[in-house]
Amino acid sequence: MPIKTIAIMGVGDMGHAVGQALRESGFDVISCLNGRSEHSRNLAKVAGIRDVGNLELMVSEADIILSIMPPSAAEGFGNDIAAAIKASGSTPMFVECNAIAPDTTRRIGASIHAAGAPYTDAGIIGSAPGRPGSPPRFYASGPDLGPLLELDGKGIKVMPVGDEIGRATSVKMCYAGMTKGMTTLLTAVAIAAESLGITEELGAELASSQAAAYDGMKRAVPRLPLDSGRWIGEMEEIAATFASAGVTDKFHQAARDIFLLLDSTPFASETRQTFDTTRTLEDSVKVYVEHLGQVS
What we know:
By secondary structure, this protein is of the alpha/beta class. It has helices at 13-24, 38-47, 55-61, 71-88, 102-115, 146-149, 167-196, 199-209, 211-220, 225-244, 250-263, 281-290; strands at residues 5-9, 28-31, 50-51, 64-67, 93-96, 119-125, 137-141, 157-160. It has twelve helices and eight strands. β5 (93-96), α5 (102-115) and β6 form a beta-alpha-beta unit. α7 crosses α9.
């Protein structure tokens, strides 16, 4: 049967944009907004995502469920959906799209399968639909990718990587391990320089010999607190992924510490809509240094 109704849980910056793109492509897009923030409710309204009220109704109406939320919430939500599947008797495909370790997605998949529903492992790379550049890539693995492939070209690009649960999240974990790892390293360097009183001198040297890295530092470091709260859990999942591969987990445990620091600053309460675009790298690291030692 063709996909008609898509449920999206996690109506944040990525989730609502994916939902809007799918709705504009002709799908009925629903969610359950019980207990969600006013920000999420507003994003759902902007995207035209219909609130069905509770998880059992959502499961009953949906042909496919996309879970797009902070990694720390993924496994608990997967268990909630498994219970709703059992209670409703409906078996929509569950697509786990979060930045989680392969072992985590396998545990969620086992719970969904035990409830009687099909499961697909996915990892999202790229910016949300509607932003400049190519659409987000949904790397996907599992024994039946047919339902998700029906969404290909509808604001997202589906990238099959095999039938083994865990392969898609492995791609996401390694990619994010590099990109977010590099960004947190730049942040750590900027904070250390400010703490040591050599921000101006280091900046002059970087501008001369490492211009690309310095430009990236100036762009990324002031914005990083916006995402720091939800990326704490992602660093823990990347660390677990690396450990399972026999590689040190210490890089991304350290990255987690940087995000904990940034999340303790006043800037963490900003959103993409309220972000102060005039705040410079120098302005930002002064505040970050003030919060050093305040995070246990």
